[in-house]
Design goal:
Strand content: 25-35%
CATH architecture: Roll
Oligomer: single chain
CATH class: Alpha Beta
Order of helices and strands: HHEEEEH
Shape: elongated
Strand order of the largest sheet: 1-4-3-2
Distance between the termini: 19 Å
Number of domains: 1
Largest sheet: 4 strands, antiparallel
Helix content: 10-25%
CATH topology: Thiol Ester Dehydrase, Chain A
CATH superfamily: Hotdog Thioesterase
């Protein structure tokens, strides 16, 4: 955790979690063998339609955090659910979610193309998108 991510009390600033969520999404997409840039080069964009965060316990300066994802999708929306933990702990600090639309270059809603659906198949589940058998 960077000092600049915290407030004067050393607690992670509430909006910083949205950046952390974005980083977790980017890692998940890279694990699919893609990048956001490659998806956009193919004419598909995934803007955020909805975001929600529930702050259960504060993360503090110098904490190392883990973010676990659960992902589900339709042909037009992708939903990411996040659980934030302090490294080595099973206590959930933050619960969050984002919902993303699938749009084309003109900003119009579109169905996810077959190549994107195929990449997400098996990775988007009702369970965590972590290695099989992994426990926090």
């Amino acid at each position: 955790m960077l000092y600049g991510d915290t407030d004067q009390m050393g607690v992670v600033y509430y909006a910083t979690y949205l950046r952390f969520f974005e980083g977790a999404r980017g890692e998940w997409i890279r694990d699919l063998g893609l990048t956001y840039a490659q998806i956009e080069e193919r004419g598909i964009y995934l803007p955020v339609l909805e975001v929600g965060v529930r702050y259960l316990k504060p993360a503090r300066y110098d904490d190392v955090l883990e973010i676990h994802l659960r992902v589900s999708h339709t042909r037009v929306k992708v939903r990411f659910e996040y659980k934030v933990y302090r490294l080595g702990s099973t206590e959930v600090l933050i619960l969050g979610h984002t919902v993303h639309a699938c749009i084309n270059k003109d900003g119009r809603p579109t169905r996810a193309p077959d190549w994107l659906v195929a990449a997400m198949k098996g990775a988007a589940t009702s369970g965590p998108t972590l290695p099989e058998g992994y426990e926090p």
